[in-house]
């Protein structure tokens, strides 16, 4: 018997119940649970902030694990937890609002905590290799004026790149973009995209 589907949901919007990305991410997870009712869900809300990496963090990360002292282990404790959450997940759902044409700084802090040399990626003679393979990701993208994939969208392309860098190459974006000009219909369209994305994901499972 195959193991139950494991879902990790990352929330980064500061808008609480008014957040479109939270609404879309919840829709994705609800659709996943309808298709895989025994799935497990872990939610990591980073909107309140995460520690920024610093010199101590970098030094600890590049110290051989067997040689890390107690302080270095403590410095990496949160990062280790975040990495394990990601490693355990089959499906990653990311709520990604666009703030000033890019992702939220708190989401970037999460990325900095999980993008670790020799842990989630490594460099080889053939270039970088992601170590978190076999996972799928759905990004719930929302913006007021930034068009998905436009010249001023520095969010979706970055997320696709960094996820691919750590080995997650199966990435789908469901987007409620340009809502100030295109209105609530964008959210409805994104919810339909979410339903279709989940159906494809479950069919391929």
Describe this structure in words.
The chain is α/β, with parallel strands linked by helices. The chain is 41% helix and 20% strand. The protein has eight helices and seven strands. It has helices at 20-35, 55-61, 70-75, 77-88, 105-114, 156-165, 179-182, 185-204, and strands spanning 6-11, 40-45, 91-97, 121-124, 127-130, 136-142, 170-176. Helix 1 links the parallel strand 1 (6-11) and strand 2. Helix 1 (20-35) packs parallel to helix 8 (185-204). The longest helix is centred in the last third of the chain and has 20 residues, at 185-204.
How many angstroms separate the termini?
13 Å
Structural class: alpha/beta
Mean pLDDT: 96
Number of strands: 7
Radius of gyration using CA atoms only: 17 Å
Q: Which strands sit side by side, in order, in the main sheet?
A: 2-1-3-6-7
Point out poorly predicted stretches: none
Largest sheet: 5 strands, parallel
State the shape: globular
How many H/I helices? 8
Helices and strands in order:
Blueprint: E1 6-11, H1 20-35, E2 40-45, H2 55-61, H3 70-75, H4 77-88, E3 91-97, H5 105-114, E4 121-124, E5 127-130, E6 136-142, H6 156-165, E7 170-176, H7 179-182, H8 185-204
Parallel strand pairs: 1-2, 1-3, 3-6, 6-7
Antiparallel strand pairs: 4-5
Helix pairs in contact: 1-8
């Amino acid at each position: 018997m195959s193991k139950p589907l494991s879902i990790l949901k990352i929330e980064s919007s500061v808008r609480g119940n008014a957040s479109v990305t939270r609404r879309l991410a919840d829709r994705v997870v609800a659709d996943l649970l309808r298709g895989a009712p025994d799935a497990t869900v872990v939610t990591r809300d980073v909107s309140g902030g995460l520690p920024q990496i610093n010199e101590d963090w970098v030094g600890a990360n590049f110290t051989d694990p067997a040689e890390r002292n107690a302080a270095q282990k403590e410095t990496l404790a949160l990062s280790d937890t975040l990495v394990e959450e990601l490693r355990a997940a089959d499906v990653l759902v990311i709520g990604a609002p666009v703030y000033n044409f890019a992702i939220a700084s708190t989401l970037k802090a999460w990325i900095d905590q999980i993008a670790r040399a020799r842990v989630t990626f490594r460099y080889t003679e053939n270039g970088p290799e992601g170590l978190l393979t076999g996972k799928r990701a759905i990004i719930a993208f929302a913006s007021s004026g930034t068009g998905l994939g436009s010249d001023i969208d520095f969010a979706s392309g970055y997320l696709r790149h960094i996820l691919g860098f750590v080995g997650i190459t199966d990435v789908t974006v469901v987007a409620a973009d340009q809502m100030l000009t295109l209105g609530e219909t964008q959210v409805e369209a994104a919810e339909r995209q979410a339903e279709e994305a989940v159906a494809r994901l479950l069919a391929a499972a």
